[in-house]
Amino acid sequence: MTLSEFFLAVTDEFGESQGRALVRDLVIDALGHQSAREALEAGETPKKVWFELCAAMQVPENRWHGAGLPQPKADTPA
Prior knowledge:
This protein is mainly alpha-helical and 78 residues long. The chain has one domain (3-63). Helix content is 50%, strand content 5%. The chain has four helices and two strands, in the order ααββαα. The protein has helices spanning 3-14, 16-25, 36-41, 46-56; strands at 27-28, 34-35. It has a two-stranded antiparallel ribbon. A hairpin with a 5-residue loop joins strand 1 and strand 2. The longest helix has 12 residues, at 3-14. The N and C termini lie close together (11 Å).
């Protein structure tokens, strides 16, 4: 998952305004008590941050692959 795919998935699942607020403000224990934005800035992969955000928000696992994708996409090489 690329960073742009992460933000598309966030918007698709939570909407533009709520998604931005969650990424900025929700502190996620599984990300070391950081927000999604802080974790991304610290170098965590977008895929890991997306999965932890979904878990924290109790998104059903069948929607964790984001943006309506039925199967996970491979991580994009750095």
